[in-house]
Amino acid sequence: MKTLTWGLVALSLLAAALWTGRQFRDDMAQAKALSSAGSVVLGTRCGPIEVQQAGEGMPLLVVHGSGGGHDQGMAWAKTLTQHGVRVIAVSRFGYLRTPRPADASPEAQADAHVCVLDALGMERAAVMGVSAGSPSALQTAIRHPARVSALVLVVPIAWKPGDVVAGTPPISDRKDTLLLRLLGSDLVFWAGLKLARDQVIRHVLATPPELVADASASERVRVHEAAERILPVSARAQGLHDDTRLGKSLQQPYALGSVQAPTLVVSARDDAFGTYAPAAYTASQIPGARFIGFEQGGHLLVGHDPAVREAVLALLGSIPSTAQR
């Protein structure tokens, strides 16, 4: 009887392992297909850069955050295409089909953003930097002011002086290590989504899962899609490692006072990546910049998607048509 029982247990474990393996393969095949859908690789003077475009009208270059790619950037901005905006979402260095060069600094990435505009024949564009995409978006406005018609920084990873009160403590080295382990394997991250999704939302997306649970159906879908879109992690690994070090490498202030473009900066006080204080400081140093700070919403600004969209559209609508070309 004991032999039979152990045999049934072994068969059950084998069946579970086979089902899990098949589910993982199916989900990964779907994730890989989605990660390349709609994009092309442009040959630019800065090298190959992956781009996805949608909409017609005023050009908006969207620079994604950590764990992203052109797909994440398009997800952030796609609704703007219904309002006369042409979204150009790029994959930054080390993400998906954009290779990582020897110099992957925000400054080099900013120059690559301009190379994309050149390859598309665009003289100027508004630039939106989301999270870890904000340093290179900022550098684009600083290094190439004639090419940037407006600047939007959403939950930006940015520098702040030590005497600025932080809303959230900085991410510890220990948490960085844990995040890299979770994001170091397609299988591990996939398992995290299946077994502990709330913890993925809390620690990887830096957003309180309880806010997500209480949000509208459309917002819940947006957050869960953002989590799932990180797969395949393996195709984003180089960029993820760079972004993990990025916040700690911002030791010196940027020349924020030299930014000429109309600027909007947005964050939430409960963003677990601690972007609120740096965002407020950044806005205070850019001439004429507008800062929108929410008390709640986390890194994904849960519940505020319509408000952020309206603020972005208002900024873009304020730009003279002569400055859009």
Write the layout of secondary structure elements.
Layout: H1 2-36, E1 39-44, E2 47-54, E3 58-63, H2 70-77, E4 85-90, H3 106-119, E5 125-130, H4 134-143, E6 148-154, H5 173-182, H6 186-195, H7 197-203, H8 209-214, H9 217-228, H10 237-249, E7 263-268, H11 276-285, E8 290-294, H12 305-317, H13 321-324
Parallel strand pairs: 3-4, 3-5, 5-6, 6-7, 7-8
Antiparallel strand pairs: 1-2, 2-4
Helix pairs in contact: 3-4, 6-7
Written overview of the protein:
By secondary structure, the protein is α/β, with parallel strands linked by helices. It is 47% helix and 15% strand. The chain has 13 helices and 8 strands. An 8-stranded mixed β-sheet has the order 1-2-4-3-5-6-7-8, with helices on both faces. The model has no long low-confidence stretch (mean pLDDT 90).
In brief:
The protein is an alpha/beta fold and 325 residues long. Helix content is 47%, strand content 15%. The chain has a domain at 36-170 and 235-318: Alpha/Beta hydrolase fold, catalytic domain (Rossmann fold, 3-Layer(aba) Sandwich), CATH 3.40.50.
Structural class: alpha/beta
CATH architecture of the domain at 36-170 and 235-318: 3-Layer(aba) Sandwich
Radius of gyration: 21 Å
* Spatial gap, N to C terminus: 81 Å
Features:
47% helix; alpha/beta; 325 residues; single chain
